[in-house]
Amino acid sequence: MSATRIDGKAFAARLRERVGEYAARFAEAAGRRAGLAVVLVGDDAASQVYVGAKNKATLAANMASFEHRLPADTSAAALLALVERLNNDDNVDGILVQLPLPDHIDEQSIIAAISPEKDVDGFHVINAGRLSVGQSGFVPCTPLGCMMLLTDRLGDLSGLEAVVIGRSNIVGKPMAQLLLDANATVTIAHSRTKDLAAVVRRADIVVAAVGRPEMIRKDWLKDGATVIDVGINRLPPEPGQDKGKLVGDVAFDEASEVAAAITPVPGGVGPMTIAVLLRNTLVAAHRNAGLDVPDDL
Ligand SMILES: Nc1nc(=O)c2c([nH]1)NC[C@@H]1CN(c3ccc(C(=O)N[C@@H](CCC(=O)O)C(=O)O)cc3)C=[N+]21
């Protein structure tokens, strides 16, 4: 048996295409483009790459992109002042402050300063609270993208056993909420879970978000499970290579022998994150402009 490879990259491309069409209509109706502001503090190489990719994708989807690159020694006060300026800028519908921030800046206080109506990452406590009590708000991009892939594959998730491995505020917890809202039976497992392999073996749906390269092995999986791999880990380079290989939290090749379907890394969940970010930004734009949000956005 060999699992179906869930093509997140292709799914994301279709989503970006749809967002681009709606964004063009939005610009017509509102007399301005939907706008996303991305703030990057410091010169982390991986973050530079992501921010560049977000900028390109935003423009390609007929939206305006406002990039703010600040030096690593930027003070919290200066960053807060920028966030405040973006909160009050009518051309900015979504604000994303790239994480992680340098150690001298408290991330929670910066996220708290973002207007919840512009918090397209869904990281603000107001949006986390809305998700946990079932009110509409912004849902973090990565878990929402995972849900799109899951419902596309499986349809109704009612009664399925889902195991989320990882309990972060950004992925694990909101992922569990979304699965619960979809009537799955949800377990959140983590580094202290006893007999993690046995817990995972019960799952019809496995969402791996631990950040440990290839930790989830073939013998941890139930036959026919659907596996969503959120991990993006770079292995140390082999001699003669300058960059190590990118791998997920799941040992892809061996897991493919048991799973019914599995997302690859790269080309799985990662591209969905950016596509959903654009989608959330366009939803924000409609709300900010007092326009109805299209149903299939
Ligand atoms: N406020 C904030 N919001 C974020 O959403 C956020 C953030 N901070 N900080 C960093 C992480 C990381 N992140 C990724 C987005 C896309 C890919 C992606 O598209 N990856 C591709 C290519 C990976 C590669 O080649 O390097 C793939 O998996 O196929 C990966 C990672 C968003 N993040």
From TrEMBL:
InterPro entries named in the record: THF_DH/CycHdrlase (IPR000672), THF_DH/CycHdrlase_cat_dom (IPR020630), THF_DH/CycHdrlase_CS (IPR020867), THF_DH/CycHdrlase_NAD-bd_dom (IPR020631)
Domain named Tetrahydrofolate dehydrogenase/cyclohydrolase catalytic: residues: 6-121
Keywords on record: Amino-acid biosynthesis, Histidine biosynthesis, Hydrolase, Methionine biosynthesis, Multifunctional enzyme, NADP, One-carbon metabolism, Oxidoreductase, Purine biosynthesis
Domain Tetrahydrofolate dehydrogenase/cyclohydrolase NAD(P)-binding: 140-288
Binding-site residues, NADP(+): G166, R167, S168, I232
Pathway(s) annotated for this protein in UniProt: One-carbon metabolism; tetrahydrofolate interconversion
Annotated family: Belongs to the tetrahydrofolate dehydrogenase/cyclohydrolase family.
HAMAP family, sorted: THF_DHG_CYH
Record's subunit section: Homodimer.
PANTHER family with a match to the protein in the record: C-1-TETRAHYDROFOLATE SYNTHASE, CYTOPLASMIC, C-1-TETRAHYDROFOLATE SYNTHASE, CYTOPLASMIC-RELATED
Chain's role: Catalyzes the oxidation of 5,10-methylenetetrahydrofolate to 5,10-methenyltetrahydrofolate and then the hydrolysis of 5,10-methenyltetrahydrofolate to 10-formyltetrahydrofolate.
Protein name per UniProt: Bifunctional protein FolD
Source organism per UniProt: Erythrobacter ani
Taxonomic lineage: Bacteria, Pseudomonadati, Pseudomonadota, Alphaproteobacteria, Sphingomonadales
Gene: folD
